[in-house]
Amino acid sequence: METTDNKTVVASEGKNIAIISYITIIGLIIAFVMNNDKKDAFASYHIKQSLGLACTGLALGAIGMIPILGWIINILGIFVLLYMWIMGLISAFNGKESPVPFLGEKFIEWFKNI
Questions:
Q1: Residue 2: CB partners within 8 Å, gap ≥ 6?
Q2: Cα–Cα distance between 99 and 33 in angstroms, integer?
Q3: Do 44 and 33 meet the contact criterion of CB atoms below 8 Å apart?
Q4: Are the beta carbons of 27 and 73 closer than 8 angstroms?
Q5: For residue 99, how far is the Cα from the chain centroid?
Q6: 3 state SS of 56
Q7: pTM score > 0.90 for this model?
């Protein structure tokens, strides 16, 4: 049986994993490995959000290879991606499971098996 102190430790550890997931691709991989054994629901939620942001960034990079129109879309998309990343990180810091703006709900749907 878990005590209140144990639940606080687990919640704190899940929160730390969630925050790590937003710090670069390497942080996402580290968070995924750290959460692989424990399967903390809060950390898993934010790992899915961070993975979605990483995939969106890769897609923007591919679009950025298209001359002129792709460059414009890439520059605008980077600002939107930065906003989404900041909102996800703030959500993880505050211990909330709120999806990142615009695509957060889709990220949960797309990565539900992770």
A1: 10
A2: 22
A3: no
A4: no
A5: 9
A6: helix
A7: no
Are 46 and 22 in contact by the 8 Å Cβ rule? The answer is yes
H helix runs in the chain, sequence order: 4-21, 24-38, 41-63, 69-93, 104-110
Q: How far apart are CA 25 and CA 22, in angstroms?
A: 8
Task: Quote the tokens at residue 86.
Answer: 């900041």
Residues 6+ apart with CB under 8 A from 84: 53, 56, 100, 101, 102, 103, 104
Share of the chain above pLDDT 70, in %: 91
Residues in the chain: 114
The residue-averaged pLDDT of 11-30 equals 92
User: What is the rounded distance in angstroms from the CA atom of residue 80 to the CA atom of residue 101?
Assistant: 9
How far apart (Å, rounded) are the C-alpha atoms in residues 107 and 113?
11
Collapsing DSSP states into helix, strand and coil, what is residue 40? coil
State phi, psi for 45 to the nearest 5 degrees.
-60, -50
How does pLDDT run across 44-68, given as a tens digit for each residue? 999 999 999 999 999 999 999 999 9
